[in-house]
């Protein structure tokens, strides 16, 4: 990924004010500021939760403004102000949305132009201040409550809009961590994606793979609470299926998992559809699998956590989980030559 910042501007969106504080001057892009913006953009685009999206049909001010900014260089300043007005308007729809700074930037990724919209939620930092007390120094610590996110911190909400003439299927990349923290049914989680951007997230192979892994685990935990202890054995099938199959057919998986237990088959299918797995089959994202599922992590109710390489997890001569008659489990680690403390 090669990011090159072209222009940038910052606006202040104070919820206590009637109007946003709009900047009439672009930022001077010295080396430090360029690196700051490049790091945030690169980190956000590489974030695990960054998703492709498409704008909804109909009139969309943010979309039209961003497209015009890409094609008309003289419109960048006014376009950024219009985007700030639209975000401020969306923020006013919910009292729990906090004040923020907004950075709008135009940049190139390789040779493709983009408009970056970065909602810079305030962070708390601490600085020292020095006063003279007679002939002595008095040094104390002062709290700063409106600091911008440091380069090593995550931006919670941002969007990267591409040219309307792009031949790819998506219009923009969206990172909105609040959706995943609160669930996209809550208005406070919807305001950036739906109210401000007027966009929908797209489901691709990575989104389906992650959703299948996450929601299958949630469903297993719920069934265990309901007394279906044997359901826990399906975890191994889930991991093996994701790692070994190029495509997952949900009906076939359900049949392999539950056999003749039709009530579990129907319950599982319904649960997956309600969570967004509304397709018969999907392609497995092997890059994500290799990155995220190279190890199996087991959290045990006794406070022990076991982390095992995937290959070892499936080798019975090295690692095994046994079910006891009383419903408990026994974990056996076999053929150990050396133990090292880390």
Q: What does it look like?
A:
This protein has helices spanning 31-45, 61-71, 76-91, 177-182, 187-196, 205-225, 234-244, 250-258, 262-274, 286-292, 310-313; strands spanning 3-13, 51-55, 100-109, 112-121, 123-133, 136-147, 157-162, 172-176, 199-201, 247-249, 281-283, 295-299, 305-309, 319-323, 329-333. The protein is α+β, with helices and mostly antiparallel strands and 342 residues long. It folds into two domains: 3-121 and 152-202, no CATH class; 206-333, no CATH class. It has a seven-stranded antiparallel β-sheet. Strands 5-6 form a two-stranded antiparallel ribbon. Strand 14 (319-323) and strand 15 form a beta hairpin. Helix 8 (250-258) packs antiparallel against helix 9 (262-274). It is globular and about 70 Å long. The protein starts with a strand and ends in a 9-residue tail after the last strand.
- Largest sheet descriptor: 7 strands, antiparallel
**Which outline best applies?**
globular
End-to-end Cα distance, whole Å, is 35 Å
What percentage of residues falls in helices of 4 or more residues? 25-40%
What string gives the helices and strands in order? EHEHHEEEEEEHHEHHEHHEHEEHEE
């Amino acid at each position: 990924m090669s990011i090159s910042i072209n222009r940038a501007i910052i606006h202040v969106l104070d919820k206590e004010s009637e109007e946003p504080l709009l900047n009439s001057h672009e930022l001077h892009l010295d080396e430090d500021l360029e690196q700051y913006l490049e790091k945030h953009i690169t980190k956000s685009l590489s974030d695990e939760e960054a998703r492709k999206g498409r704008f909804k049909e109909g009139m969309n001010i943010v979309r039209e403004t961003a497209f015009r900014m890409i094609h008309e260089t003289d419109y960048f300043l006014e376009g950024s102000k219009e985007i700030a007005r639209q975000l401020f308007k969306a923020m006013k729809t919910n009292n729990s949305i906090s004040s923020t700074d907004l950075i709008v930037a135009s940049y190139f990724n390789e040779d493709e132009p983009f408009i970056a919209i970065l909602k810079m939620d305030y962070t708390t930092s601490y600085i020292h201040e020095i006063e003279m007390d007679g002939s002595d120094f008095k040094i104390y610590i002062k709290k700063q409550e409106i600091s911008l996110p440091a380069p090593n911190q995550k931006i919670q909400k941002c969007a990267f809009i591409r040219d309307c003439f792009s031949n790819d299927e998506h219009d923009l990349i969206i990172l909105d961590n609040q959706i995943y923290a609160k669930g996209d049914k809550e208005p406070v989680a919807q305001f950036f994606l739906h109210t401000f951007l007027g966009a929908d997230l797209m489901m691709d192979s990575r989104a389906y793979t992650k959703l299948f892994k996450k929601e299958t685990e949630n469903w297993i935990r719920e069934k265990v609470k309901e007394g279906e202890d044997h359901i826990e054995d399906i975890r191994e099938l889930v991991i093996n299926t994701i790692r070994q199959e190029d495509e997952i057919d949900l009906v076939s998986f359900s049949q392999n998992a539950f056999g003749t237990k039709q009530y579990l088959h129907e319950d599982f299918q319904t649960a997956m559809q309600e969570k967004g797995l509304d397709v018969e089959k999907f392609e497995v994202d092997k890059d994500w699998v290799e990155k995220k599922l190279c190890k199996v992590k087991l959290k045990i109710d006794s406070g022990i956590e076991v982390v095992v390489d995937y290959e070892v997890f499936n080798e019975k001569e090295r690692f095994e989980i046994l079910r006891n008659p009383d419903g408990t489990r026994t974990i056996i680690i076999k053929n150990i030559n050396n133990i090292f403390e880390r």
